[in-house]
């Protein structure tokens, strides 16, 4: 018999919770910036404070899903930060001690599949469709066919936190730092093209690009000039490539203290949002795509849907 379900997405920048009722309708959706991926690119290990904050957040989430009647139907998926950390078991063990459930470390392919499932069932777009998920430590590119089936994906070591920590060191970054960041994105996309070609697909042949996760949704909110972050207003927003380019340039020209004052900017995202925006800008330009379609539904929705 159907029962309430919950899923947690542990990303490099944020930890998110989705609770749905027995019919699959959303009860609550939560997001907390914990920056679990802080410093992993440089040290290969978790920052102690970030790890503790993340474990505490998951413990708090357990209280939320329990209050809504969720018992055993819970799935916790950990992504790039945990995949990349040499001391990943330190995090997995700490969560298991805290809530009695061990997170799953999702592969890049699993992460891509879940994002595609969540996004493409939530927005009406032209096919074949590609989905881009810019996370903190990695970016997934997922391509479907004309029938809506996933046919190819690739996971790049490229995300808003990783790109910022490697190249966008000043606040705001210098022109040379932005150029270095663009070169890194281009290099990653060359490798991504090769991998997608091995799957028999190309981003140059897709009819639409759907953006999921915090970078894309925040850019959708800024494009809409929202005073506060409103999921219903953001979902399905279409951001023309030229407007996204201007947004990317604007964010890169501002210090993080000014980005934090932008109405829909969620706390903890202001110092990396320009890195994520740059990734999306380069992708749209490289493949001649006219717009980014923003979806609030993503891999988190795919995780909870996988519970049945």
Task: Please explain how this structure is put together.
The chain is α/β, with parallel strands linked by helices and 308 residues long. The chain folds into 2 domains: 5-106, 2-Layer Sandwich (Nucleotidyltransferase, domain 5); 108-300, Exopolyphosphatase. Domain 2 (Nucleotidyltransferase, domain 5). Helix content is 45%, strand content 19%. Strands 8-7-6-9-11-10 form a 6-stranded mixed β-sheet, sandwiched between helices. Strands 3-2-1-4-5 form a 5-stranded mixed β-sheet, sandwiched between helices. Strand 6 (129-134) and strand 7 form a beta hairpin. The radius of gyration is 18 Å and the shape is globular. The model has no long low-confidence stretch (mean pLDDT 92).
CATH architecture identity of the largest domain:
2-Layer Sandwich
Q: Characterize the largest beta sheet: strand count, sense, and whether it forms a barrel.
A: 6 strands, mixed
Alpha plus pi helix count = 13
Number of strands: 11
- CATH superfamily of the largest domain, called what? Exopolyphosphatase. Domain 2
């Amino acid at each position: 018999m159907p029962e309430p379900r919950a899923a947690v997405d542990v990303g490099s920048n944020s930890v998110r919770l989705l609770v749905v009722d027995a019919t699959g309708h959303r009860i609550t959706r939560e997001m907390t910036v914990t920056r679990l991926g802080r410093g992993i690119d440089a040290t290969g290990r978790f920052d102690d404070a970030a790890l503790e904050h993340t474990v505490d957040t998951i413990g708090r989430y357990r209280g939320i899903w329990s209050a809504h009647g969720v018992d055993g139907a819970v799935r916790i998926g950990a992504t790039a930060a945990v995949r990349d950390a040499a001391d990943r078991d330190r995090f997995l063990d700490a969560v298991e001690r805290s809530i009695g459930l061990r997170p799953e470390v999702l592969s890049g392919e699993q992460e891509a599949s879940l994002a595609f499932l969540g996004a493409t069932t939530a927005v009406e777009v032209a096919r074949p469709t590609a989905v881009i998920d810019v996370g903190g430590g990695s970016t997934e590119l997922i391509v479907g066919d004309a029938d809506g089936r996933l046919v190819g994906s690739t996971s790049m070591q490229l995300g808003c936190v990783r790109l910022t920590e490697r190249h966008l060191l000043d606040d705001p970054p210098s022109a040379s730092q932005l150029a270095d960041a663009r070169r890194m994105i281009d290099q990653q996309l060359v490798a991504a093209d090769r991998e997608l070609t091995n799957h028999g697909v190309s981003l140059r042949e897709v009819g639409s690009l759907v953006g999921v996760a915090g970078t894309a949704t925040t850019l959708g909110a800024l494009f809409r000039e929202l005073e506060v972050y409103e999921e219903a207003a953001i979902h399905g927003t279409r951001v023309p490539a030229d407007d996204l380019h201007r947004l990317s340039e604007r964010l890169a020209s501002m210090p993080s203290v000014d980005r934090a004052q932008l109405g829909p900017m969620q706390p903890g995202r202001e110092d990396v949002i320009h890195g994520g925006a740059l990734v999306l800008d380069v992708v749209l330009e490289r493949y001649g795509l006219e717009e980014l379609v923003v979806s609030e539904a993503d891999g988190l929705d795919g995780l909870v849907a996988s519970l049945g």
